[in-house]
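Our preliminary data section would be incomplete without showing what the modeling component actually yields. Below, a chain of 327 amino acids is followed by its predicted structure, encoded as tokens that our downstream tools consume directly.
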Amino acid sequence: MPVPVPAARLAAVRAAMGEAGVEALVLRPSPDSRFFGAFLGGAFLVVTQDVVAETADPAGVVPAGARRVGVDPEMRVRELFALAIEAELVPASSVLWPLRLRKEPYEVEAVGRAVAAAEGVLARARELAWFGATERAMAYRLRVLLAESGCEELLALRVAAGEHTARPAHVPGDRVINPGDALGVSVCGRWGGYCAEVAGVFAVAEPPEDFEAMYSVVLAAHRAGLAAVRPGVPVDEVARAVGEVIDGSGYGRFAAAHVGRGVGLGHDEGPWPGEDAVFEPGMVFCLEPAIYVPDLFGARVADVVVCGDDGPVPLGASPHALHVLDR
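Predicted structure:
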């Protein structure tokens, strides 16, 4: 079945395929196939210099004698074996990810709508009764709010209380949430095909001792990282700016190594710090500085921002001030 794709996008893809020596792309349902506007129901998307088609039999569309074929990086092993394509298989990401770095204006708007939906979930979360509930129970309530918001796919959900906020990979458990606890809450999902993540930092009744001072450092690091999101600035500059603030505060050894990544059709895509990437207008970045003090508490801010012509343009509107829950 032929798939309509905007002419400029298709031309850019085919030019990149030619430069990479890739004669066909075979994509499964994934962010890469959504880049072509395809939402596949169990089929594959095949892109060649002549055809863009959905098919259950990619081998029948890939040009005969093709020597190099790009396959979706999310391809399952059984799918790879079933392709029956006699060619060198390489990741399609080598062709598509550079093209996905800069978002079109309509894509930026779509990410903005996703951010607004995620922020709406956290706003409603502030109205829930947290005292005496478990992390697991509150995570379930957030799942309901996400479903009501129109979230198409939940990608990550975090509810951490007290000392658990110092664990970046914490899974909500049976710990009861009590007055005096710090709370770390974040949601990451897909709305309208595009992804967003937001994180909120709360305190129950009153913040723990020294928590506000630590959180103020996270906010200062966030402001410094945000200022680095400008055209022509290396993406690594975000990590340097964030690290400089946290190191100067004395919390350096507790800083999260990961300060952000790109978001869009996927929740973890370029640009990434640590690569030879430079910010350009249209790049969308999730800035997420964090401090984790073992056995005490931690705090993380996640904010989606687009690099505009003149600097950073936050796509969210939620304030980052510490919110104290009264129930």
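The mean pLDDT is 93. DSSP finds eight helices and 15 strands in the chain. Preliminary results of this kind motivate Aim 1 of the renewal.
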